Amino acid sequence: MKKLMSVILVVLLFTLTACSESQSGGDSSSPVSQGGELSFAPSDKQNEEQSDPDDTEETSETAETALKSLVVYFSWSGNTENVANAIKEQTDSDIFEIVPATPYSDDYDTVVDLAQQEQRNNARPEIADSIENFAEYDVVYVGFPNWWGDMPMILYTFFDSYDLSGKTIAPFCTSGGSGLSNTVNEMKELEPGATVTDGLHIGSSASSDPDDTVGKWLSEIGLAK
Ligand SMILES: Cc1cc2nc3c(=O)[nH]c(=O)nc-3n(C[C@H](O)[C@H](O)[C@H](O)COP(=O)(O)O)c2cc1C
């Protein structure tokens, strides 16, 4: 009889222990059903413990990503293109050439006459291609040759076509002797929502070796890398 009682007691104790383990989960992982199969998902606490302590740092590093910049230029005979490429190299920018849908003649006198006519007519010559993801850029370097004391009219097409508010515009120009003329002020009027930096002017003959001048200008306007 005494032996029977102790066997019953042992069975009772065993049953109670098994019950209490299944109610508390036993293992801290809780089973979840995935497509009919059970698998073990870590508990919330485990998730917290496993989260990378450096996560906060990574988030703030991502927030400090560098400004994205684009060089946009028009060039008829290549001088402005040289400067555009130097800026691209020194700033790690993307680059876009404004190409007219209707190409200009290769003949100097013809272009001089047409450019004057376009200016008198306040023309907006069509641009062949468009810029992808323009909204992504923070800084836009805008380059052109001085034509008749102003930007070529196709630059006005560019400013009409894209929203530059909130961006920084850095103007650059090549010319015979007129410098930037009034083009920087003109850009400020065209884009009141943008910040327009001091402009860079490089004479036609110096445009084949623009690196030093470009570097100095980028430092002055606070955009050197
Ligand atoms: C149609 C036309 C008009 C120009 N008008 C001027 C001008 O008013 N003042 C000036 O200094 N240079 C003028 N130039 C000279 C250009 O600004 C200069 O050669 C420039 O560096 C050319 O740049 P690009 O090779 O990028 O086209 C003119 C050139 C052309 C073709």
Structure, briefly:
The chain is an alpha/beta fold.
Structure description:
- The chain is an alpha/beta fold.
- It has a domain of 155 residues: 3-Layer(aba) Sandwich (Rossmann fold), CATH 3.40.50.
- 41% of the residues lie in helices and 18% in strands.
- It has eight helices and eight strands; from the N terminus they run H-E-E-H-H-E-H-E-H-E-H-E-H-E-E-H.
- The strands form two sheets. Strands 3, 4, 5, 6, 7 and 8 form a six-stranded parallel β-sheet that branches. A two-stranded antiparallel ribbon has the order 1-2.
- Strand 1 and strand 2 form a beta hairpin.
- Helix 4 crosses helix 8.
- It starts with a helix and ends in a 5-residue tail after the last helix.
- Flavin mononucleotide binds next to helix 4, helix 5 and strand 6.
**β-strand number:** 8
Largest sheet: 6 strands, parallel
Helix content: 40-55%
What is the fold-level CATH name, i.e. the topology of the domain at 66-220?
Rossmann fold
Shape: globular
Radius of gyration: 34 Å
The CATH architecture of the domain at 66-220 would be 3-Layer(aba) Sandwich
CATH class of the domain at 66-220: Alpha Beta
Ligands, ions, cofactors: flavin mononucleotide
- The CATH homology group name of the domain at 66-220: Flavodoxin domain
Q: Mean of residue pLDDT? A: 82
H-E string:
HEEHHEHEHEHEHEEH
Q: In what range is the share of β-strand residues?
A: 15-25%
Structural class category:
alpha/beta
- Helical element count? 8
Stretches with pLDDT under 50, minimum 5 residues:
9-53, 58-63
